[in-house]
Design brief:
The chain is an alpha/beta fold and about 210 residues long. About 30% of the residues lie in helices and about 20% in strands.
């Protein structure tokens, strides 16, 4: 079985659980039986980055050196300061260098996994039009404004739109990662990983 590259995008003010949750799921899948189906790494425009609450992260790769991902995880996190200055995804969704890199990766990638307001970045990259999507409950209207032809599902935890898997706020990214593991490798593999992690995931399907 081909080992899939899983690139976890990080940036300043990224929500910690948004990227660490999926990182854990993909990293520990297949470790007990030695199959090791995922090569998981972090990538950012620069290094180090300062995630939420000043967590310093040293990405494995920069955008220029990153191997082509089979799976790209785009996390969320951020908002606007009191003075209106954007940070996190609200800043990065206007980062033309990052948007161009995502669009460069997209054609050859197998799946994109959007966590929380990572959907706003994908929408700004023009990848969310004419598909079902979701995001953090506080950003649903914003997502609809950026991608007016998208079917934004307000109460969905995970939405499978084929190539792109969307998830709601923060912890929903863990469920989306398990869902994608099950989709690619089978439900039993995902359940074994969830049991190892002592995470309550029942293997539900999403639409």
């Amino acid at each position: 079985m081909k080992q899939r590259n899983v690139a976890i995008l990080v940036f300043d003010d990224v929500e910690v659980l948004d990227f660490c949750g999926p990182f854990e799921v993909f990293s520990v899948t297949g470790k007990r039986d030695g199959s090791d189906p995922f090569n998981v790494y972090t990538v950012a425009e620069h290094t180090p980055i300062a995630a939420r609450n000043s967590l310093s992260v040293n990405p494995t790769y920069t955008l220029d050196t990153c191997p082509q991902p089979d799976i790209l995880v785009v996390p969320g996190g951020g908002g606007r300061h009191v003075d209106g200055t954007p940070f996190g995804t609200r800043k990065e969704m206007h980062n033309e260098t990052l948007l161009a890199w995502i669009n460069q990766c997209y054609p050859q990638s197998e799946h994109i996994l959007s966590v929380c307001t990572g959907a706003l970045v994908l929408a700004k990259a023009s990848l969310v039009e004419n598909m079902a999507a979701t995001t953090h409950h506080g950003a649903l209207d914003e997502l609809q404004q950026i991608a007016p032809t998208a079917e934004v599902k307000a109460n969905a935890r995970v939405v499978d739109s084929g190539k792109i898997i969307f998830s709601g706020g923060i912890s929903a990214g863990i469920d989306a990662a398990f869902y994608l593991v099950a989709k690619l490798l089978g439900k039993d593999v995902a359940l074994e990983t969830a049991t190892y992690m002592e995470y309550d995931w029942s293997g539900e399907s999403y639409g």
